[in-house]
Design goal:
Strand order of the largest sheet of chain A: 1-2
CATH class of chain B: Alpha Beta
Structural class of chain A: alpha+beta
Strand order of the largest sheet of chain B: 1-2
Structural class of chain B: alpha+beta
Number of strands of chain A: 3
Largest interface: A-B, 47 and 72 residues
Strand content of chain A: 5-15%
Oligomer: heterodimer
Order of helices and strands of chain A: HHEEE
Distance between the termini of chain B: 6 Å
Shape of chain A: elongated
Chain lengths: 85, 135
């Protein structure tokens, strides 16, 4: 019985590794995904109709700041979050 | 950024730079090496500002731009990483919540929201580089 449970566990681990490698493009990519991406990926709790959270942002000049809330009110605000890489 | 071009007369656009998704010292992608987009994960706000400015200059990026603090306050509030789109309505409420990128990042959904309000708008296509970066 223990042998069967062990075999199933090994097969499950293999399936996860292969699945992640396919998603990430390589075994190294799978490691990167687990090590660096998963800890920062969150579904979040915001829902349509919720008050939009505010946050202070730094402008491109590196000195001045503004709040997201300052840019809302007159028209809809489309916010695109992302990075360069 | 075609959606901006098409709807800038109806809505405001704000791009927020958050922590890097594929820096050289974490999970670097081959595509970034090919496109010469190689940066280590910023450890200071000054480094974030420098990368954000590189991005804006390279793509002649047209929207308002903000940079998240090293505390990642905006990122945490919006569960933004690695990429995500929201639309906030005039009352300050979430009107559209996009999925988490890259697999559920669908700018066409934000476009559909804008189209439902303002109708289909299609101006002259922007450059291929901009379209590639952000539909």
């Amino acid at each position: 019985m223990l042998k069967w449970i062990g075999a199933v566990v090994v097969l499950l681990i293999l399936a996860v590794v292969i699945g992640l490698s396919v998603m990430a493009g390589s075994l190294r990519g799978a490691y990167g995904m687990v090590r660096y991406a998963f800890p920062h990926m969150h579904r979040g709790t915001l829902r349509v109709g919720d008050d939009a959270p505010d946050a202070s942002l730094l402008a491109l000049d590196g000195n001045s700041r503004f709040h997201i809330r300052e840019r809302t009110g007159a028209r809809p605000l489309v916010i695109v979050f992302g990075s360069y890489t | 950024m075609q959606i901006y071009k098409d709807y800038k007369d109806h809505a405001d656009f704000l791009t927020v730079y958050v922590r890097e998704a594929h820096p050289t010292d974490e999970w670097q992608m081959n595509s970034n090496v090919k496109e010469d987009v190689c940066y280590a994960q910023p450890k200071t706000l000054e480094q974030r500002v420098a990368i954000a400015n590189d991005f804006v200059r390279r793509f002649n990026y047209p929207t308002q731009f903000g940079i998240d603090d090293m505390s990642n306050a905006a990122n945490d509030a919006y569960a933004a990483w690695p990429e995500r789109i929201y639309i906030i309505d005039e009352k300050g409420r979430i009107a559209y919540r996009g999925g988490m990128g890259p697999f559920n990042y669908h700018p066409e959904e934000a476009r559909a929201w804008l189209a439902s309000r303002y109708g289909e708008v299609k101006r002259e296509a922007s450059t291929a580089v901009l379209d590639k970066k952000n539909n």
